[in-house]
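re: that chain from earlier
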Amino acid sequence: MLELDKVTVTFKGRGRAVAAVKEVSLKVAEGEVYGIIGTSGAGKSTLLRTINALERPTSGRVLVQGEEVNRLSGEALRRKRLTIGMVFQHFELVGSRSVAENIALPMKAAGRTELEISTRIDELLGLVELLDKKDARPDQLSGGQKQRVGIARALANRPSLLLCDEPTSALDLETTEAILDLLAGINRRLGVTLVVISHEMAVIKRICHRVAVMQGGQVVEENDTYSLFSDPRHPLSRELVEKSLGVALPERIAARAQGLLLRLVHLGFEAEEAVLTETARELGVHINILHGRIEYINGKPIGILLVEVGGSPRDQRLVLEKLRKRVAKIEVLAEARTQEVRP
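^ sequence. v structure.
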């Protein structure tokens, strides 16, 4: 569906050239929801804009359904853009026009008939659940409703690829979840391929099948979403995952702990098993759960627990040995402060 081959975008100004995107290569399969995440200035929005030639790469190739978009111009580019919809961060609706008129704009530009346009508007407003807002103006809508109109407009010409540039960053949490559910539903029901740009891992883990992490204009890690969350490799990926999962041990608890402090990561259905209870009962050792949670990503659980293991150093070693056979990953956060008394 989509291939970026060593795409570089360089901007020139004040006597020097700055590479916003540096030799990025990635592939997005048909029907996939692909996320691109990074902090501000990482180059992700610039990269997204090369896909529909709103930004021309300095070098490299952008192929959509096998056609090299960056070489197209004029009528050929206009036809190609009909197959690529775009959802913007700040909606970009025309304030002087009604909801129906906003959705009609790309269809009029494509030369659709009035009957086609009218029928399609009703279809799309039903899809985004805004049939009662057909004649409303944008200033009469909430932020979530405006984005629903933006999504309907992006789908007007039945694109096979939908580009979403920070589609929820201007919305509150509840509205964000509703918009993400809508986008995921569009992907499932219509088979539209989605490329979603975001700086929020919560967006990525909710709807994306695969994800690329960008830093300094480069892709520093790429993986399926579950693998990225369960085993991030790059320091930035680890930082983003840690912040998203929100499992950090408060300093005051770490300071007063006397036992062995462990961070346990359970993957798959192992996350739903009573591993700690069984281990504590079998070895007769007290295991205190300090913090933890289970996240479900693409239907598969990831469990993260911070625990304190009591008992003697020997007991703690036995617990550690047993847990290593049952738990996907173990990190020792702090060694026990007690010392084993030897005869």
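Confidence is low (pLDDT under 50) at residues 338-343.
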